[in-house]
Write a structure and sequence with these properties.
With about 350 residues, the protein is of the alpha/beta class. The chain is built from 13 helices and eleven strands. A six-stranded mixed beta sheet has the order 8-9-10-7-6-11, with helices on both faces.
Amino acid sequence: MTKQQRIGAFVRLKAFLDRHFSKTFLNEETQLHEGLNALLDTAFTYNGWFSRNFTEEALKNIALMLDEKELDVFCKPIPENVEAKRVAVICAGNIPLVCFHDVMCVLLSGHQLIVKMSEDDKVLLPFFLKLLVHYEPGFDEKIRFAHGRLSEFDAVIATGSNNTAKHFEFYFSKYPNIIRKNRSSVAVINGDETTADFQELGKDIFTYYGLGCRNVGKLLVPKGYQFDAFFEGIYGFGEVANNNKYGNNYDYHRSLYLLESLPFLDNNFLILKESRDLHSPISVLFYQEYENQQELEAYLETNRDSLQCVVGKGHIPFGCSQKPVISEFADGVNTLDFLVHLSRSV
């Protein structure tokens, strides 16, 4: 395959997704679209966090990344002739298709992909990889699924918790690797936000029920800040409590804080609690006050290596944390650059 052939397959994948959501199916694709609809339901059966609305949101965000002009620019650093290496991608399973960007980078760069899927997210990716093979048969020999212990690979891209990252670092230290750990995201509130701003911020908090590293889990607010406007803005996201898993988390943490007589604010589906910790549990949003801009900037700098996104005016706009552009890499590590230079480093 040429580089342009590989790009072309992903462009066709975008077109398929666009047709799926606009319901303008090509006749020969009707069964594929019906199959995808069935898989969306199956994904929720396997993982109760993967509700259909959020899984579709993940697919729409993937489609946004696959614009042809953006892909052409993104792929410029990739040489036409690549010494293909075997790259293992160990996928997380916290949100639907969270590993797609890594998988895409490996395939676009001309390497061979070995996928180690998460048990929590094993339904959707095979469908889209088969669809890519359908659009470009040359991908067939470039894709392999790993079952059990990984073997016969040259490099690793792995995502997991801080604990699993320690194991990854031990086992894969001899290989070129990208190993990602826990990160979280914060929103900076300056006190001038409107209800519309908070409605957008609600997307950053509640999309995927707060399970992603790009989900806002903490607010940084001015000293003495009152949260009335915030609660008014996020009122429309109360349906998250209809998910049993989310609702159970909410009930558990509310009961726990009441038993321990810990102060918190509550709107019947979100708990707002003051804490200096960065990583909040599901259904809980931490907040921390700052005295001035200097203190705020010092906090962001101190925690830079633990932050995936900073949302707010002057940062990532409200409502956009879950819509990364194709050139926005997790943890700030350029995956494509790693893959382009892999042939020379192995």
